[in-house]
């Protein structure tokens, strides 16, 4: 039993990963939330968020605890990352990085998060810039034309790549990100030496 004024430092170590690939890393914030939830954390702003994160985010990254788990056959799973936490006894917040996949939309996400948040006595805010998931089928005329151009210029067969991440293409209807990565080039997107 510790004195009431005792201060304890708890640290957790994680492994960074891209927000769309959380299985490549390990979330230290989630470990802290899970640990603190079993401790006698004060019933204040931070304590409420700790219990919310432990209950609804658990140790997974698929959003099942929030009711938003989904898997798309090309884009992969919806992912949820507890990315930031801050607060004190009066006010606290967490920021979730959510990569939606169909059939979810921003509207369905907002409805589910607000319901879960209200049940926990929390206010949920959705970033106004958050966009619906984007999927353009490989048979779409735009994609067919881009693949044909790639094949004509390079002489190589074209293949589509799908990501569950996000892209500037979401800002436009029926748009795709197009920037071929040649088979003999290293993948530099979101890496230390990222460049074009």
Walk me through this protein's architecture.
It is a single chain. The chain is α+β, with helices and mostly antiparallel strands and 196 residues long. The chain is built from 4 helices and 4 strands. The strands form 2 sheets. A two-stranded antiparallel sheet has the order 1-2. The model has no long low-confidence stretch (mean pLDDT 88). 15% of the residues are buried.
In short:
The protein has helices spanning 28-38, 45-56, 106-119, 141-154; strands at residues 71-72, 76-77, 79-87, 92-99.
**Mean residue pLDDT:** 88
The quaternary state of the protein chains shown equals: single chain
In helices, the fraction of residues equals: 25-40%
The termini sit apart by 57 Å
Uncertain regions: pLDDT < 50 for 5+ in a row?
none
């Amino acid at each position: 039993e510790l004195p009431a004024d005792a201060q304890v430092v708890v640290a957790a170590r994680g492994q960074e990963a891209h927000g769309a690939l959380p299985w490549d890393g390990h979330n230290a914030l989630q470990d802290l939330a899970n640990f603190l939830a079993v401790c006698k954390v004060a019933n204040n702003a931070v304590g409420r968020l700790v219990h919310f994160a432990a209950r609804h985010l658990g140790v997974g990254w698929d959003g099942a605890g929030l009711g938003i788990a989904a898997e798309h056959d090309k884009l992969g799973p919806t992912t949820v990352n507890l990315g930031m936490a801050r607060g004190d006894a009066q006010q606290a917040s967490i920021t979730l990085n959510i990569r939606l996949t169909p059939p979810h939309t921003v509207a369905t996400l907002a409805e589910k998060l607000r319901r879960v948040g209200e049940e926990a006595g929390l206010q949920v805010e959705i970033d106004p810039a958050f966009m619906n998931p984007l999927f353009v089928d490989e048979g779409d005329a735009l994609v067919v034309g881009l693949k044909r151009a790639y094949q004509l210029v390079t002489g190589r067969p074209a293949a589509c790549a799908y990501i569950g991440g996000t892209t500037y293409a979401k800002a436009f209807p029926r748009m795709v990100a197009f920037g071929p990565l040649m088979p003999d080039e290293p993948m530099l997107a979101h890496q230390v030496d990222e460049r074009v």
